[in-house]
Amino acid sequence: MVFSSMIFLCVFLPVVFILHCILPGMRVKNTLLIIASLIFYAYGEPVYVLLLIASAFFNYVCANCINRWSEHKKLILFIAAAGNLGILIFYKYAGFLVESWNTILGMSVPIPEVRMPIGISFFTFQAMSYVVDVYRKVTERQKSFWKVLLYISFFPQLIAGPIVKYHDVEMEITKRTQTLDGVTHGIRRFIAGLSKKVLLANTLGLTADVLFEAKASEVNWVLAWIAIISYVLQIYFDFSGYSDMAIGIGWMFGFHFKENFNYPYISGSIKEFWHRWHMSLSGWFREYLYIPLGGNRKGKFRTVINKMIVFLCTGFWHGASWNFLFWGAYHGFFLLLEEYIPAIGCKGGRVKSCIQKIYTLLVVAVGFVFFRTETMARGVFWLKMMFTGFRKNPAAMSLAVQQLTPLYLLTLAAAFIASMPVKDLLKNKRGYEPVSYILSFVGLILCILYLASGTYNPFIYFRF
Fold first, then answer.
1. What is the CA 174 to chain-centroid distance, rounded?
2. Helix (H, G, I), strand (E, B) or coil at 115
3. Which among 37, 31, 8, 59 is positioned nearest to 157, based on CA atoms?
4. Closest alpha carbon to 51 in 79, 12, 92
5. How far apart are CA 251 and CA 303, in angstroms?
6. 140-186, pLDDT tens digit by residue?
């Protein structure tokens, strides 16, 4: 089940929310959320719900063992990390590793056909952060397995993030309040995210999919740039839209998740971009990998190495493909460049700021070419077309022009505006509140009409 589906919008969410409001006592409410979350996951993954429960129980036991046998806590932490990463590697990377092994060594080891559980990257990282926090004494171990299960399986952030750390929601699992202001804020935030996903990302994604599937003979620089601009906006509104929906649902139930996106496309450097893009993931790697590796405490060279390791892992976290590894290393390289040439990221006047923003957008767009394409060879081809595909090509121009419908152009303009902090400039203006309620209502109606028509509605996180 996904947020942008009629069964979730019209049945699951209203029923669970109403029951959560009327049921007495926090224990009963938490039981409801556990059952609802397991049903939510089992709707699409009926077998792998057992894996989710087993993962939660394994990490619950490891945290208890760390608390009980503190003299062996390093060994227990190693076992916990090995177990979590082992599950992740088996389900997500087994096929890729065997295929790469066969290619490199010329062998023919059978490639395992393992179906990847949805959201495994998200709930595994959450489970690991809980055990590590107990090890570091950042938080006390949770005596109740059911509260750990709720933390790991809570449906808003289960399959698409944001990655929530246990100490950020520990108190709200035990004691939380639902207020009218919180619920109305959550509903508006949810509708904003749903509108991003359904009205913007889906429309742009349809164009991106059509163009990226074009034959090589039908691609020129115009088509290539329309495709990558569409995809760059699609992936942002898809990711941030789901995060907005998760945060909004959290508010509705009395939980307060941290922000996950902060207008990344206004960044003036790749470093700033990663302070604004998928902040829960970059924060997770910073806290649980970069700092333990030494962070920036061991000299500039070691800092660069640590950052490169982190971004290789960031790329690999997104998917089992050389494209994702390259994407991570690519971003790591530009962070390295900015580390050794600080002038790139240093603030200046308006002209320099404009150049920096163009530089950042160009670097991000080129990186997303490899994020989107299936193979490195295909990515190189698209990159070549973007910058050298100027040869006259009537077929490519015809296909490109076909995509420039009034709906697409209107969506593109809306996406450009929505990717900028326009809302922050308007929210303190007189009349903003009533207008925002009206826009939320209109957005919800449009989303329902779109979804009811059964049109294009991809779930991008199948790859992750």
1. 27
2. coil
3. 37
4. 92
5. 38
6. 899 999 999 999 999 998 888 799 999 889 999 999 888 999 999 99
**By C-alpha distance, which of 280, 282, 270, 281 is closest to 368?**
270
Tokens of 308: 């490169």
Integer angstrom CA distances of residue 239 from 96, 242, 279, 363, 427:
24, 5, 11, 19, 23
- pLDDT tens column, 111-124: 787 888 888 889 99
Q: What is the pLDDT of residues 58-96, one digit of tens each?
A: 999 999 999 888 889 999 999 999 999 999 888 888 888
**Active site (annotated) includes residue 318:** yes
Per annotation, catalytic residue among 20, 278, 318, 331: 318
Two tokens, residue 428: 């303190």
Q: What are the Cα distances from residue 421, in Å, to 77, 151, 424? A: 42, 32, 5
289 closest CA partner among 247, 328, 240: 328
Contact 412, 233 (CB under 8 A): yes
List, for residues 392-407, the tens digit of each pLDDT value.
889 999 999 999 999 9
